[in-house]
Structure formats: structure tokens, C-alpha cells
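WARN no homologs supplied; continuing
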Amino acid sequence: MRVTIADVARAAGVSKTTVSRVINTKGEVDGGTAARVRAVIASLGYVPSSGAVGLARGSSRTVGMLVPSLTWPWMGEVLQGVVDTVEAAGYGLLLFTFNRGADSVERFTTQVSARAFDGLLVVEPENTLDKIIALSDRGLPVVLIDDRGSHPDEFPSVVTTNHEGGASAARHLLADGRSRPLVITGPEQFGCVRDRLGGFREILPTDLVAVGDFTELSGRLAVERLLAAGTPFDSVFAHNDISAAGALRALRAAGRSVPDDIAVVGFDDIPMAQHTEPPLTTVRQPTRRMGETAALMLLGHLGGATAQETVVLPTELVVRQSAPLAANSGPVNGSSASASAHRFP
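OK structure emitted
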């Protein structure tokens, strides 16, 4: 049976408030009483709740993290970066998702009101930015991870170079002699989507743009529709690796050679990208570093440091067999490749 603070108070002949003051090293308890309470704690084996201790001291030693869903392909890497950082600093992590709509909002709001955590890391669930800004205005420290190109001024953020990432994909395809690319985007309302498309088009203009939703199905359908229409294209730039995998699947079903007929480039470099057929050339987002950096920013703010407004981490082109450079082409942006074409049966 778990020993409670009431058990300690009863055995020591004091109030629960007095026990709490002893636990939290408040100065209002005389030495003799404090020694008696500590002796009872030791004899009963009472272990105070770390959350209760923290709240009594004005700090929960806990960080909250709000995310749309754990099913996002790169979320695990971001989360691992956060966990490694906050645990190394002696903090706990409370994770909240918005999978259940209004119920999720209510649960999250209750935890905020109860001061269950000292600061908040956010991968913004859609249509929640106003609520997060309101929390920040009430004094809750907030750091945003991957602001989707919205660039809010209300709190610091950690972002990646989506514009340059799109440009690096275009430079790579152009160096390989590709001149008729299909771009499969994510949802148009996301600033990161506009940045990736804008960066790509600055280097390699194209009118072949299919608006997708970051799913395998959207990548597959975009390629199937172009093939069915007989529209010529020699490459695909998909705005994430999942839709790039859908494009590869559609090309395989149509008997097209990758990369001989059509080269394919994705975005993110999630673990799956190394295991597609053929392995996927992609623009790597430093997702784990994004989590680590955001956590360090928040912990620094909790420790009294002035939070940096925005930290921008660079993307990196990773060349694999779905879009290697031709033998007579040099590396692009420091990347290199030595892979043969993969022909689908």
C-alpha cells in the first residue's frame, strides 16, 4: 500500500502543510519538528511525488510537447531529439496530441491550467496557432518546431531551409540533364510547401505541379494521371518521401525505368527512404536536431536566458539510386552518387 503525505503527518503529529514545507525545504518549520518529520519519512519509506514537489517550489521540472499526431513520418526523430535533451537536463516530458478534436483540446487546456509543465514545445496542430499564441501571451514559454513557413513573431521557433531544399533538388535534376519535372506538393496552405515549390522553380521552372496531401496515394495518383494523359516528364520532385514512394509505385506499375526514364527526388529523408525500390534520393530535414535545438532553447529560457527568435537549420541533399547524377556530371552541393539505374520489371 502506498504511503501518503497524510500518513506521514499523522505519524509525526503535524499537519500535511508542515510535512510539505519540510519536503520543499521551506524555512517556516523549526529544526526539531523538521527532524521528526524527516525521521518519519525515512521510517515509513515515503517517496514524495516529484510533480508535487516541483509545483510547491514553483516549477514542475516538466516540459510539455504538443503535436498533431504521432503518425507523421518524421515525428519520431523530432520526439527523440526532445526526449534526449530534456531528460539529460533532469526534466520530464508530457506529450499531447490533437487526435481527438475537442476532447484533446479540453485535456490539454486542463493541464495548462494546472501548471503541469513549465514550458511548451509545439509542432503546430492545424488551426491551433491562435490558441498557442494566447498561451504565450499569458506567460507560458513556447518554442515552435517547424512553423510550416508561418513565421509567427510571438515566440521563438526552429525551422529548416525549405526554400533552399527545393532549390537543391532542382539543381541536382538540372545537373543530371532533366528538363521536364513533375512537382508533387503538399497542401497549399502550408508555407513550407510554397517555399519548397518556390525554391525549386527558381532553378528549374515547370508548369507540371500536382497538389497533394503528403500521402502515398497522392503521389501515386499524380504520376498515374500524367502517364494516362500522355504528358511527357523526365523527373519527379515530391514534397515528402511518402508521396515520392507513391510516385515510385506508379512508375513501377507502368513499367517505367527509374532513373533511366524518370528520376525521383523526395523530401525529409525518413528511414523508409533508404529502403524504397530503388533507394530514394531526397532532401534531408535535420529532424532530430530540430527537436534537440528547440528543447535547448526552451530549457535555456526556463533557466533565465533570453530566447533566440528563430534558429534555421540547413537541409541537405542525399543522393541515392532513384536520381543519381549521370556519369559525366559532377557532385551538386557536395553530394555524390555512384549508382546504376534500377529498372522495374
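The CA atoms of residues 70 and 76 lie 7 Å apart.
OK
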